[in-house]
Design goal:
about 475 residues; alpha+beta; four-stranded mixed sheet; about 15% helix
């Protein structure tokens, strides 16, 4: 045995007594009716009220907390929709297990009374108004639950990941997607809160590229995030929700930062979504860059991020001609957005063993293709979403379906037997946001299209055997993807 191996064995043996001496507090959480409560955040606090460790109760209301040393501790529970409750003190003996049953007695949180009170000065949630602190308390509890769920407790997640490039007007230019099945984890990891506080959320590289950082759960729950941002109740016309807005402190105006809003359901106090955008960056980037995420509660009361997206603008600097008639004028430089790159994902399914804890409703684009003149259904038409590999074919009733379509603005291309006979296609733009709405595409027949084109060009279609036709296309500058007007 080598010296290095002997050291390793000795180190392991020395650590065994420490592991064997671990102090554990375990038990169950029940409500006033003695029913177990799942999804309760249970925190172990030391004498300074610092959180040492935490856990989520399972479906049987069970929790388990491991203390690093023996001593006196308190326990705090937080249930969404209720104020936190403290218990104890409890004395944990060296290497001993203690059992404690916790009964929830917290008062319900009533966010219906929370309202915007002017423009509050820059404050952290702890120093802000009572309404701001109340909302942040619920948000922080849900985020902590998300973090614990993401550490993996036997849940398996199936996720749809996608990359897109959309034009400034919103039409999808390119899209790719993949399905990932693995143990539950955070959908992405950002830099540490220390790094983001020091370097900012947008990092420029020597080759001119930019890296945009979206805050992960560890960052949102960090003390530095509270220090670097101001918090207040967000104004909204939606009576069903209340938001807590955050923005960088005045001291960080020279650092690339984020600002946004976390939205909570007023009635249930459940966390619903977060939207953010980037601040203190180039205006052309700030207008397009940002992200959002949505949160859902599973059947076991655990929390997950059900959808997330980050948008990154693609910029191009063009140098035009100098101002005409002005001697010595320099060429005009213009920065323009040529597209927006979007990276995101959709949670499809979460399972634990054979149990389904959450499943997304399938997104199915459905519609019909009809003749624009007669209104009759078109059979055998191929409907393709340009920029993707997604396609569908119409049946005898003219109906088609395209599965696993992400919400967005698409350009749809239709090939039909009639249009194929003259080498033509029909294109139209559609916005897909609601899978319950059926799309109708009206396409011209070959004879109608040929007649219209030839009349417009000042010629007449003599007969079906006439071989005259039309060439159509777009004019581009070499190396440019934007068509010239």
């Amino acid at each position: 045995m080598s010296g290095a191996n002997r050291c390793t064995v000795v180190a392991i043996l020395l650590s065994l007594p420490a592991l064997m001496q671990a102090q554990v507090l375990r038990g169950t959480v029940a409500d006033e009716r003695d029913a177990p409560v799942a999804g309760v955040l249970v925190q172990l606090l030391d004498g300074d009220a610092t959180v040492i460790t935490r856990a989520l109760t399972n479906e049987r209301g069970e929790y388990r907390l491991m203390a690093p040393t023996a001593g006196t501790y308190r326990v705090r529970t937080q249930r969404i929709g209720f104020r936190p409750v403290s218990y104890g003190p409890f004395v944990l003996q060296p290497g001993a297990d203690a059992t404690q049953r916790l009964v929830l007695t917290g008062l319900p949180v009533r966010l219906s009374t929370v309202a915007v009170v002017g423009q509050n000065p820059c404050r952290s949630p702890g120093d802000s108004t009572a309404g701001t602190y109340l909302v942040w308390e619920q948000v922080r509890g849900a985020l902590a639950g998300l973090q614990l769920t993401a550490t993996g407790q036997g849940e398996a997640a199936t996720t749809l990941l996608y990359e897109r490039v959309v034009e400034p007007a919103g039409r999808i230019r390119e899209q790719s997607s993949s399905i990932r099945a693995e143990s539950m984890r955070q959908p992405w990891r950002s830099l540490s809160s220390d790094s983001l506080s020091r370097a900012g959320y947008v990092i420029a590289h020597e080759d001119g590229s930019m890296t945009y950082q979206a805050p992960d759960l560890d960052v949102l729950l960090s003390d530095l995030f509270l220090v670097d941002h101001c918090f207040r109740i967000a104004p909204t016309s939606d009576a069903a929700r209340v938001g807590i807005a955050f923005e960088p402190t005045p001291a960080r105006r020279r650092i690339a930062e984020i600002q946004g809003t976390l939205w909570v359901d007023r009635k249930s106090s459940e966390l619903r979504s977060m939207e953010f955008r980037y601040a203190n960056i180039l205006r052309e980037r700030a207008e397009r860059a940002g992200g959002d995420m949505e949160f859902v509660r599973m059947t076991n009361s655990g929390w997950v991020i059900s959808r997330w997206e980050i948008r990154m603008p693609l910029l191009e600097r063009r140098v035009g001609r100098a101002t005409s008639g002005v001697p010595g004028a320099l060429p005009v430089s213009e920065v323009r957005v040529t597209g927006i790159k979007i990276s995101g994902g959709e949670l499809l399914l979460v399972r634990r063993g054979l149990d389904t804890l959450w499943a997304r409703a399938p997104l199915l684009l459905a519609g019909t293709v009809v003749d624009s003149t007669s209104g009759r259904p078109v059979e055998g038409a191929r409907v393709t979403l340009i920029g993707t590999s997604l396609t569908g074919v119409t049946n005898a009733a003219g109906r088609f379906t395209v599965a696993d379509v992400l919400p967005g603005a698409y350009e749809v291309e239709v090939h039909s037997p009639s249009l194929d006979s003259i080498g033509a296609v029909h294109r139209s733009r559609v916005g897909f946001t609601d899978p319950t709405v059926s799309l109708q595409i009206r396409t011209p027949a070959a004879r109608q299209l040929a007649g219209t084109v030839c009349e417009r060009s000042g010629t007449a279609l003599a007969s079906a055997s006439d071989r005259r036709g039309l060439i159509a296309g777009a004019l581009n500058t070499r190396g440019d993807t934007i068509a010239l007007r």
